[in-house]
Amino acid sequence: MSEQDAILTLDGLSVKLPEGADRSHALGGVSLSVAANEILCVVGESGSGKSIMANAIMKLLPRDVEIDGGRVMFEGRDLAAATSAEMRQVRGAGIAMIFQEPMTALNPLRNIGDQIGEMFSIHTGLSKSEIKAKVLALLQDVRIPNPAEAARAFPHELSGGQRQRAMIAMALALDPRLLIADEPTTALDVTTQAQILKLIRELQVRRKTAVLFITHDFGVVAEIADRVVVMQHGAVVEIGAVKNVLNNPQHAYTKQLIAAVPPLTAPPPRPLSDDIILTLDHVSKTYRNGGFLGRGARVTHAVRDVSLKLPRGATLGIVGESGSGKSTLARCIVRLIDPDGGSIVLEGKDWARLSREQVRRETKHIQMVFQDPYASLNPRRKAGDLVAQGPIVHGTPRAKAIADAKELFALVGLDPSAIDRFPHEFSGGQRQRIGLARALALKPDVLVADEAVSALDVSVQAQVLKMLADLRERLGLSIVFITHDLRVAAQICDLVAVMKDGEVVEHGLSGEVFGNPQHAYTKALLASIPGGDFARGKKVEAV
After folding, report:
1. Order of strands, sheet of 349-350, starting from the edge strand that comes earlier in the sequence
2. Band of the pLDDT at 10, cuts 50, 70, 90?
3. Could you say which of 1.10.10.10, 3.40.50.300, 3.30.1020.10, 3.40.50.150 is the CATH number of the domain covering 276-291+298-535?
4. Facing residues of 25 across strands?
């Protein structure tokens, strides 16, 4: 591809890291091009430089991290040399970006409609009524339920997947020439993934938009990519057409990544204990927001009459679309929120009836890994302190807790010396591993994992899943595993419950649910898996 044909060309782009970092450069001489009407997927492990590359293009690098070589050519202009004022004109209208973590990218003090509408008020002369109409149309395009209500909602009132869709609507607002998508479907369920991937493809065809799509999901690559770039340690190690790279990878690192992709077929079932460690009996939770004196309130039946059992040493997977009630159920189980009805019996004690003081005393028996690691980690405390905090509160001497934190860092694939770094100094996948280490620090009997591997690349995901399986065997750990990735659920879960609109519509052994689904909704989920043929081991054809 010639530079004249490309919308974006990176020519020997290098990004220097501050002194004291693990290596001198985050990017070392990266060269690639993206053409109009092309989707170029960039894959690689956490820390490979994918997101740093996207931020370098947008000139959104952190302090002390800077471009120190190469060019970023966008429509004849070198953005590496552009001023802040010039970049403000480029961002949004010329190049738009979908960020990896919507909760930190959205303003918590403004409703969703205002934040999307700001794109039009800054870059266009549309009236308020025209902007409102466009905002509602965008929210409808990205399949957010009840667009008018969602426009009035604040970010914390939406589910993780709905927040991501709002971010996508914001990025698509001005029909940019180049769309940079940094893990845009990581937090989304498979049906919404399929809708968003279709939406991005339609935009590309209609507007001849160039798309730089960063992902760790090879199913997404197989579904949407025209070409693939594989990155390792800040360098491009392989590049080519999607069918060539996925069907016949040349570099050893590419082969390693593809081999780590979890298959959709469940392994043979393990024998399950008759000892039930956790019982959910008719658990319900309803939210009521807004309204005046109880009138006109927004009512959401997040969990409806859910009854499930977790055998000791087993893993119960809970899957379903964004907004199906999975995360609300998880928060009820650990009593971060109070259920409206039903019982949650753990080791003979009904957690739904415990006082707050009793919950604090018993919390070491059940721990949670949260979906959004950046929002759940205190940015002012070092990573090691965050992991050691729980044991210290429960009586472990600080020196012992810090030593144990180092061991946990190694266990989840992090450098033990990194305990003195702050959360913002880690990549998204590394922050997720810190959250996992923190949850394991108290050696709980039950681990509730809410999208615990959603932010991880496939090789680290495989390591963490193996680690969870080993811990389950060695410690007798029982796991409630909430995920939108059906391939991951198939590999790690003994039992699976499928949730829709707050209700469990199907549950049973993983092999039976995935191999012979009975409910129409379960069948729809399985049919929506991105790159389904690739997940089933079939050859990938050109998009």
Report:
1. 298-311, 276-289, 341-346, 349-350
2. very high
3. 3.40.50.300
4. 16
Nearest to 313 by CA among 270, 362, 281, 268: 270
Q: Could you tell me which CATH class the domain 1-94+174-184+211-259 is placed in?
A: alpha beta
Q: Write down how long the chain is.
A: 543
Is this model's pTM higher than 0.70 or not? yes
Fold match, 1-94+174-184+211-259 / 276-291+298-535:
yes
Q: How many helices and strands, by DSSP H and E, does the chain display?
A: 22, 20
3-state helix, strand, coil in the chain (%, to 5): 40, 25, 35
- Report which residue type is found at 444: P
pLDDT digits (tens, 9 = 90+) for 424-440: 888 767 887 898 889 88
Tell me the two tokens of residue 238. Answer: 């392989």
Query: What pLDDT, in 10s, does the model give residues 515-524?
Result: 999 999 999 9
Where exactly are the structural domains of the chain? 1-94+174-184+211-259, 276-291+298-535
Cβ burial, residue 285 (10 Å; 0-12/13-18/19+): buried
For 533-542, write each residue's pLDDT tens digit: 776 666 776 5
Q: Which residues, 6 or more positions from 25, have their beta carbon under 8 angstroms from its beta carbon?
A: 14, 15, 16, 17, 68, 234
Amino acid at 492: I
The answer to whether 30 and 234 have CB atoms below 8 angstroms apart is yes
Assigned token pair, 476: 């007798």
